Amino acid sequence: MPQLQSVEIPAPHGMLEGLLRIPDSHSAASGLPRMAAVICHPHPLYGGTMHTKAVFRIAQALVDLGFPTLRFNFRGVGRSTGRYESGRGEREDVRAALDYLVGAFPGVPLALGGFSFGSWVALPVGCADARVIQLIGAGVPLASLPVDALAACAKHKLIVQGERDEYGPKEELVRWFAGVAEPKDLRIIAGADHFFTDRQAELVQAVTSYFQEGRSALGALTSS
User: pLDDT over 70 for what percent of the chain?
Assistant: First the structure.
């Protein structure tokens, strides 16, 4: 079984509460994983936490692919210190989580992603951070994330969106995605709303198949 570790991530305001899940395939003898990931949760003021179902399921998919994956609570959520700062402070939290993962797995390239508010915060941070080679956005709130934020970002990007996402409807999504820089991949989940209600399995499959098809920054995955 994968190992689940409760962690405290140092942050400018104190600490962030986190959960680091390490695949059962990883051990000191097996060498470094090919990638490690940070996944960010939806809006703190509307009940978003690292336990939000879509966040948990994306992280689960990445762990099953063999990637150590860190979820964490933004400032002011759960046991994390600090308070909500309209995205500005939360971007600092993302960088703190990346720093923590680098410390745990030095030299391992990183994936950074998030769901809803988490994607709005994470994707620009990942574009600017040289340690991050793979970006994942699910339920991207298109009105909050102008396409020019990703127009010059030449990193691999996976966007997963519900066909009926009220914060990123299909027609608007297609126009928005056209302005996102290559390399990029769009997976639209038929019939799914913003929260992927009753479509969690399809969300997992979208993430899993993207990596298995060799479309990610890692290329074709080989068996460990």
Answer: 96
